[in-house]
């Protein structure tokens, strides 16, 4: 006997199910207590057609909490990676905080890289509650790919996690501070205040060069007047790696006020400096 989790759903039946669900959601007649129906929807995620899977994921977002346990079970245990991927995407739509432990486990342990990515995407939607678990991955003894996914998710959490991020910058762990600075830089793109300024500017003096490099990169995302005041002096930084990062950040910033300072470095004899100056100038122009 073939288990339902091991066979693909019938395409016609899947289409009819999706149509039925959408009609019920529109008419507000959907029975969110029908566990058999909820499980059937999750199994339909094995459909080969991306648009059909997307249709169910959108429906999950409308159903909300009642479907969450079924999606969590699928994410943790379903043998079909396509189902696990879409389960993660469904959880991202619902944004139920109780999903965080299962999502963290999938990010760390699932053998499928896309499942890891969809789990990271869902964690990014969880807001402040996901900050600590993600930071634990970043400072823990985990593969670099997992740390990278966690850092990415942290960067997309947004301003609701700003207080936790500001506290986390006090960490002694270099990778945590790098990730925090990167995340705050993303927040700075849409929101700027003094608390961000204090951390990002102090990160320019951090004891670890990796943190300083991340801080320089984030300056291209803050108000131009503040960024120019910090980046232009760094063009003469004795550490070439930091100096080159400042050139590239000015290029991304795109402010014409920086052109005279960059053009003055076209004859700079330090290795590689004239080249990055040309790149920055071309980006601005």
Structure in words:
With 285 residues, the protein is mostly helical. Helices cover 68% and strands 0% of the residues. It contains 17 helices and no strands. The chain has helices at residues 11-27, 35-43, 50-63, 68-77, 81-94, 100-109, 113-124, 131-139, 144-155, 162-168, 174-190, 194-203, 209-218, 224-234, 240-253, 259-263, 273-284. Helix 10 (162-168) runs antiparallel to helix 11 (174-190) and helix 15 (240-253) runs parallel beside helix 17 (273-284). The longest helix is centred in the N-terminal third of the chain and has 17 residues, at 11-27. The protein is elongated.
Discrete helix count: 17
Computed Rg = 24 Å
Tell me the total number of β-strands. Answer: 0
Q: Output the helix-strand order.
A: HHHHHHHHHHHHHHHHH
Give the distance, in angstroms, between the N- and C-terminal Cα atoms.
Answer: 67 Å
Q: Spans with pLDDT under 50 lasting ≥5 residues?
A: 1-5
Q: What fraction, in percent, of the residue positions are helical?
A: 55-70%
> Please, what is the average pLDDT?
94
Shape: elongated
* Main β sheet profile: none
Derived from helix and strand composition plus strand pairing, the structural class reads mainly alpha
Percent of residues in β-strands: under 5%
């Amino acid at each position: 006997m073939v288990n339902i989790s091991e066979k693909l759903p019938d395409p016609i039946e899947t289409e009819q199910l999706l149509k039925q669900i959408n009609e019920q959601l529109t008419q507000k007649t959907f029975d969110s207590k029908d566990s058999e129906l909820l499980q059937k929807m999750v199994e339909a995620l094995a459909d080969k057609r991306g648009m059909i899977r997307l249709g169910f994921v959108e429906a999950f977002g409308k159903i909300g909490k009642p479907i969450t346990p079924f999606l969590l079970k699928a994410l943790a245990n379903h043998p079909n990676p396509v189902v696990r991927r879409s389960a993660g995407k469904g959880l991202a739509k619902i944004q139920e905080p109780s999903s965080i432990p299962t999502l963290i486990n999938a990010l760390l342990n699932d053998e499928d890289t896309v499942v890891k990515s969809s789990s990271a995407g869902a964690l990014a939607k969880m807001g402040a509650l996901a900050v600590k678990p993600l930071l634990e991955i970043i400072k823990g003894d985990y593969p670099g790919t997992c740390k990278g996914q966690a850092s990415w998710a942290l960067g997309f959490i947004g301003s609701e996690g700003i207080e936790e991020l500001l506290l986390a910058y006090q960490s002694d762990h270099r990778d945590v501070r790098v990730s925090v600075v990167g995340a705050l830089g993303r927040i700075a793109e849409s929101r700027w205040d003094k608390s961000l300024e204090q951390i990002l500017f102090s990160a320019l003096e951090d004891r670890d060069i990796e943190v300083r490099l991340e801080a320089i990169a984030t300056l291209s995302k803050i108000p131009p007047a503040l960024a120019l005041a910090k980046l232009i002096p760094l063009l003469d930084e004795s550490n070439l790696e930091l100096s080159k990062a400042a050139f590239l950040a000015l290029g991304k910033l795109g402010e014409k006020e920086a052109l005279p300072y960059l053009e003055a470095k076209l004859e700079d004899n330090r290795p590689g400096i004239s080249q990055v100056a040309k790149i920055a100038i071309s980006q601005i122009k």
